[in-house]
Design a protein that fits this description.
alpha/beta; FAD/NAD(P)-binding domain; four-stranded mixed sheet; 5 helices; 4 strands; disordered C terminus
């Protein structure tokens, strides 16, 4: 098993920034993330997906009230599957941006997905993946 100078638990906004900085300073650094994608809860499941869903509802509301602005739109419908797909696309784009920031580092930085899962939550079935 590899040894690291710094191990950051979680790849959210604080985690990935801390790991990148530690690697830039010359520390052999790892990020431990239980999810399959980088970015933490906020980016993958919380803030960002919620905001994209709220934006879709805002657009729908504006279209429904468009006559107040002198714009007539007929037969306005929404498709929840497409709205959720839009939300997931936003998340994927931002998560890949985090991956790009980390991959672009010319320093010693590894991403360990789920490696501490067995220690922290033994009931979970975990696997260890190394990327980059």
């Amino acid at each position: 098993m590899d040894k690291y100078d710094v191990v950051v638990i979680g790849s959210g906004p604080g985690g990935y920034i801390a790991a990148i900085r530690a690697a830039q300073l010359g520390f052999k650094t790892a990020i431990v993330e239980k999810e399959k994608k980088l970015g933490g809860i906020c980016l993958n499941w919380g803030c960002i997906p919620t905001k994209s869903l709220l934006r879709a509802s805002e657009v729908y509301r504006l279209i429904k009230k468009s006559e107040e602005f002198g714009i007539t739109v007929k037969d306005v419908k929404f498709d929840i599957k497409s709205i959720i797909k839009y939300s997931r696309n936003v998340v994927d784009k931002l998560s890949s941006g985090v991956e790009y920031l980390i991959a672009y580092q010319q320093h010693s930085l590894n991403i360990l997905l789920s490696i501490l899962c067995q220690i922290l939550r033994p009931s979970l079935l975990c696997q260890t993946l190394l990327i980059f």
